[in-house]
Amino acid sequence: MVRARRRFDDDARWTLVRRLMPGATAPAGPADQAPRWRRWADDLAQDLTMGVRALRRDPGLAAFAILIVGLGVGASATVFSVANALLIRPLPFHDPDRLVFISNGEWDGGDRRSAVSVQLSHMQDLREEGRSFDDVAGYYLFDRPGAHVLTGQGEPQRLTLLRVTDNFFPVLGVSPHIGRFFTPEEVAAAGGGSVVLNHRLWSTRFASDPALVGSTILIDEEPVTVIGVLPPSFDFSSIFEPANSADYVLPFPYNAENERSGNTLALVGRLAPGATIERAQAEAELVVSRREREGRNDFAPFVTPLRERVSGEFRSATLLLVGAVALVMLIVCANLSNLLLSRGLARRQELSIRAALGGSRGRLTRQLLTESLVMAVAGGLVGLAIALGGTRLLARLDVGVALLSGVRVDAAVLGFTLVAAVLTGVLFGVMPALRLSLSSPEGILRERGRGTSGGRGQRRLQSSLVVAEIALACGLLVGSGLLVRSFAGVLGVERGFVAENAVAMRIDPSTPFESEEARVAYLNESIRRVSSAPGVEAVGVTDILPLVSFNRRWCIDRGCPIVPFVRVVTEGYFDALGTDLVTGRDFTVDDDRDAPLRIVLNELTAGLAFPEGGAVGRSVRMNGEDWEVIGVVRPTRHVHLEQEPGPEVFVSMRQIADHASLFLIARGGGSAADLIDAVRRGMTVVNPELPRNDVVSLDGIVREVTSPRRLVLWLMAGFAGFALLMACIGIYGVVSYSVRQRKPEMGIRLALGASPGSLRRRVMRETLALAAAGLAIGLFVAWGLARAMSGLLFGVEGLDAATFGTAAALLLAVAALAGFVPATSAAAADPTETLRAGG
Predict the structure, then answer these.
(1) Which of 57, 602, 710, 754 is deepest in the core (most CB within 10 A)?
(2) Average pLDDT of span 196-225
(3) How confident is the model at residue 356, as a pLDDT?
(4) What do you get for the CA distance between the two ends of the chain, in Å?
């Protein structure tokens, strides 16, 4: 009975198929007896061929899908490459999981050097007594960037020195690229005229010449012998001191002079086999407590994995970007699923005929998924090209993010790109494939000639996908909006100085001054020459630029109750920097060595030293000497824009020579380029040997210190913009499809007297209802994202009403725009033609 019923159904189906497709024949009876793997391979080849043909029949849709997938996969692969470099890929050292960083207390966001610097003897104690450590090494923290000059070959070039203990490279497991490291005799002599070069300097300045090893170069007009070159994998600045280069290396010897210098070293240790962080922490505390004695600085050891020290600060931002790109990929999948659902309506009869010819539902589903995978893989290739360009761009950015220069497309990124492309193809293809393959062939075939309709179920499914797109886009918009508000808050803080219309140039010569008179004469001539240049309004000299962290603190009063930062400046510095003088006066040329010691305090220091007020004219005891307070200035954010100002004092450069660098700051009313040219011309007359690329705008300094936040902001804003575009396309597609499906209904309404305006309003109401549903869900998504990124915000709450309201209004406006065109088209339709077409 069942067999007869099945034969009757088959006969009926083939009668209908032959009517629609004359010449069609029934499939062969017995199944192919070839091996299963051969049948599977043949089926796959056939599916791929048919998939490519299907895409060629609709090149516009294929190109759009490939482009969208490419953008999504490219963004995902680029962000993954960042996460891989910062959080996943091992550090470029031997057995990096055993490397730890030993700081002097836990860094809380203040001055880095104050939080990590350790005295030499403490390092020696840990080396000798710490059984949890194989070894402990250190590098010197206070070599100023660009304090040395390479001459003798081409333009003079500023260099930054790195001084390390004799065991620093062995602890890390680093070997020289060519040449050797220092001998014990050279270590004892602090180099003894020998240097090791950074690989970048060797390759760019000396064209990777291996013959350079053993030859002599001039640094600070002194001949030194190059004994080795560091390997390219060792990028000290990217790992240990982002944004500060380390161009050449000298040893930091164990001697009484370096011990007296106090807290100067950052410590890196290698754990013994089997040792844990907790055990090393407890042992370090025990060693320090046993060796406390008079004359030794305080040390509160805090042991953390070196990876955490290197990239821990950017972990939250990286994870935020990973989450954002995941939302973007979900939006891509929802959008393409909607697109394929709409496209599938035109293919329902084709698929039903194939089912009638013997195609199983599984085979049809596989065929549709194959088409999606072909588009996804093609999009993956586009995404790989985008990722290659994106990673190269990111690796070249100088944004002060550790390990960012190591971002690249490696095997892990290639594997991620392939998986992302395939997974995307499955996600956006599975729903349309299942829905089309499960349709009744007989019902669809009988609908031929009466038009196709996806029905209410189709419309509900597509509408649900659009709601999901809007919800995800809402989360990204709120997240990027919060970052914009935070960034504006950082730029809008009271800095204590005016960055606009001011530039700075490093002017200290490559050789020390022969005498105090020569130093003063150089200062006078530099200030005079630049001051007389056209467009220059104020000039001053300082040893430390704003927003450059440098740990020089002096004690005020016995017992050091106040320990302010110290800056050495000349007259005119406050005017050039744009710092307001609250009371008193600025330094003058008469505040020299023949005058009593004089000092300017910032308001915070004055409040601490003289809580009753009236600081000007009184004296403070600092470093064992009495200083007359001549002025009080506004506080400046000298470490970071996101950190509150601290106590700070200023002393005259004409009275003391305790400085290792000189920066001339000039302010003018013209453009930054004109001001830079004026400073260069003036200083070229004073010192023709100065490097010509040493002039920066103070605006540039502000941009540099805010560049990590700016990078995250731009990436998030890009994702949000992409999501907004996808949501707009999704809304437009669904509303257009709905209008097409309901044309007969609209024709009847128009014929019965409905106005075009009422139809337009009806369609717009339905469009905005979709948007409202998406927003209702999206605000919860945004709330969760805002909570997750609270640690990245500055000056704005995670639940900021203005940001949430702006994002909601923007999405509603985009939805209204996307729905307006199909609504207008529906309202402009001719009812007679609409009814004729529908019937």
Answers:
(1) 602
(2) 91
(3) 55
(4) 41
Q: What is the 3-state secondary structure (H, E, C) of 161-212?
A: EEEECCCHHHHHCCCCCEECCCCHHHHHCCCCCEEEECHHHHHHHCCCCHHH
- Cβ atoms within 10 A of the Cβ of 347, count? 19
For residue 201 the two structure tokens come to 């300097």
pLDDT value of position 351: 57
Enter the DSSP assignment of 17.
Answer: H
Q: How much is the mean pLDDT over the chain?
A: 81
Q: What is the 3-state secondary structure (H, E, C) of 204-272?
A: HHCCCCHHHCCCEEEECCEEEEEEEECCCCCCHHHHCCCCCCCCEEEECCCCHHHHHCCEEEEEEEEEC
The 10s digit of each residue's pLDDT in 82-112 is: 888 888 888 889 999 999 999 887 654 445 5
What the block records as the tokens of 146 is 């660009």
C-alpha distances in Å from residue 227, one per residue of 160, 216, 714: 18, 9, 44
- For residues 463 and 72, give the distance between their C-alpha atoms in angstroms, rounded to a whole number: 22
The closest alpha carbon to 465, from 716, 63, 763, 773, belongs to 773
Residues 6+ apart with CB under 8 A from 241: none
The HSE-up count of residue 454 (CA atoms within 13 Å, CB side) is 27
Q: Is the torsion defined by CA of 81, 86, 92, 96 positive or negative?
A: negative
Residue 312 CB partners (closer than 8 Å, separation 6+): 304
Whether residue 759 contacts residue 827, with contact meaning beta carbons closer than 8 Å, is answered with yes
Residue 235: other Cβ atoms inside 10 A? 20
CA distance linking residue 672 with residue 505, whole number of Å: 13
Q: Residue 392 is encoded by which pair of tokens?
A: 């190269």
| Amino acid present at 743 | K
* Nearby residues of 412 by Cβ (< 8 Å), 6 or more positions away: 80, 84, 88, 89
Structure-derived torsion over alpha carbons of residues 345, 349, 350, 352, reported in degrees to the nearest 10: 110
Q: What is the pLDDT of residue 550?
A: 66
Element (H, E) at 134: strand 133-140
Q: 708 and 443 in contact (C-beta within 8 Å)?
A: no
For residue 755, give every residue at least 6 positions away whose Cβ sits within 8 Å of its Cβ, in sequence order, or none.
Answer: none
Joined together, the tokens standing for residue 139 give 């590098």
User: Could you tell me if 496 and 645 are in contact, meaning their C-beta atoms sit under 8 angstroms apart?
Assistant: yes
Q: Which two tokens stand for residue 559?
A: 């017992």
Q: Amino acid letter at 235?
A: D
Q: Which structure tokens are listed for 573?
A: 């510095």
Q: Which DSSP category does 553 fall into?
A: B
User: Which residues are bridge partners to 99 per DSSP?
Assistant: 270
Full-model pTM: 0.79
> Cα separation of 444 and 765, whole Å?
32
Where does residue 215 rank: exposed (0-12), middle (13-18), buried (19+ CB within 10 A)? exposed
DSSP-assigned beta bridge partners for residue 164: 139, 251
Measured distance CA(94)–CA(174) in Å, rounded: 7
Q: How far apart, in whole angstroms, are the C-alpha atoms of residue 594 and residue 370? A: 88
What is the rounded distance in angstroms from the CA atom of residue 206 to the CA atom of residue 198? 11
Rounded to whole angstroms, the Cα distance separating 383 from 78 reads 9
User: Six-digit token pair at 121?
Assistant: 């003897």
Please give the pLDDT value at position 364: 65
Contact residues for 73 (Cβ-Cβ < 8 A; gap 6+): 329, 379, 380, 382, 383, 384, 386, 387, 417, 420, 421, 424
Alpha-carbon distance 474 to 468, whole Å? 10
The mean pLDDT value for 671-694 works out to: 84
DSSP code of residue 276? -
pLDDT at res. 66? 85
C-alpha–C-alpha distance, residues 116 and 106, integer Å:
8
Most confident of 4-13, 696-705, 732-741: 696-705
CA distances (Å), 384 to each of 81, 269, 335, 397, 423, in order?
11, 39, 21, 20, 15
**Gap between the Cα atoms of 262 and 258, Å rounded:** 7
Beta strands 216-219; 502-506: pairing state: unpaired
C-beta separation of 250 from 190 below 8 A: yes
User: Residue 223: what residue type?
Assistant: P
